[in-house]
Amino acid sequence: MHNATLGLIIGLLTSQVAILITTVYLHRGLSHKALTLNAKVAFIMRAILWITTGIRPRQWVAVHRKHHAYTDIEGDPHSPIIEGFKEIQFGNVYFYRKEATKPETIAKYAKDLPPDRWDKVLFDRALLGLAVGIAILFAIGGWEVALIGSVVHVISYLGLSAAVNAIGHTFGKRPYPNLATNNGWLAMITFGEGLHNNHHAAPTAAKLSFHAGEFDPAWLLIAALAKVGLANVRLKEPKFKSQTLT
Fold this sequence. Notes:
The chain is mainly alpha-helical. The protein contains eleven helices and two strands, in the order H-E-H-H-H-H-H-H-H-H-H-H-E. The chain has a two-stranded antiparallel sheet with strand order 1-2.
């Protein structure tokens, strides 16, 4: 296989793995406590995120929780309704970093996730994690695979993450009275995150598909982990928030 093709494939696969772990571990697990993962599984996911994204979990959680506290009103860290669709779709990482680096945001919205010894030794060193990830790609296929794979992964991961915030609050269906939207096609490539209206209606639900015809790919992994005792799902049925347009 040509190195360029291999790099493209590896980049796309890496991005999808990172998105899957983001929704299961960071979003549904840490942010909303919709499920609890076995400690070893959680550590593995944390390590994979470190080498694929460099994300500090407490920062991601804090930004996301603030988004729910101020959804699409002044104070939302990344609302297309406040900032504009193009600004969020193409600049979401800027708005994320702007909020994630505020100590007061972390202190208020992620006080249950203080840094542990692994953070101090490894996981708070984002550039080191990304360097390890690139080194792994280099070991797999050399500099060309590492370069192409890294670029494809970054563009794909950031683009899809932004789409959940931009498209997911602008275009699509609103079966529940909140300003987020459902897009089945987006859910397919973001492991269920495209069912964003459902999520804002019932944030503590571990499964984001509520109706016939909806598919939440990440639920397959969550259900499998729960079946073998490596995850515990908090609620059997979605618990809906009061139905207000937010």
